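Researcher: Next entry in the queue.
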Amino acid sequence: MPGNETHGPAAPGRGGGQGALTTLPEDVERSVAEREDDAAARDWDNEGGHERGHVGENAHALGHDPEQPPDPDALRLTGVLATALPPELGTAREPVAYTVPAVFSRRVTREEQDAIESDDVRRRLAGAGYEGVELTVSDRRLLIGHTSLAALRSGLAREIAGVLRDVSRDLVAEHDRLAAEVADLQREEDRRAGAVLVEADEIRFE
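Model: Structure for this entry, 206 residues:
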């Protein structure tokens, strides 16, 4: 009987005859391991584990400009959690609208959550043609309700990306305004305290 045929260059193997396990050169094994580690590092869950099915860093789908590197501190969405989508998608029973879970680049602050879930954002989305779409923050996920992948591809993703940019910008501006107010109050208090000290120092009990 003819022996097992192999295609391409033979890989070096351990001794032991037919059926012995083959080994790869050390540099190839290291390269494969590094690629696997990189892939695992990109897919994380809310607690820092692995988020299986996370379609990460899809710039076009999420409304990001791929030529503009994102600010590492800015709140943004890195992808859609495909494994949490309805199982009927792609079948004859596919729903018209459903919830699409997306993954945040970091944890959301309470101020950011309040702004994202606000009536102002709902009105903004409705005005852009996405009536009924609701954004709900759930830990490291943004639940985009009453929508579809098609709607996200057609412009909703870019609109949501704009919402997040504006939320971040407005909160930074508000923090700067409050910091300026505090600084003004501190300067006024320092002036007052200095004036009182000078006045008190001029008093002589002689």
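Model: Helices lie at 26-42, 59-62, 110-116, 119-127, 149-201.
Researcher: Noted, moving on.
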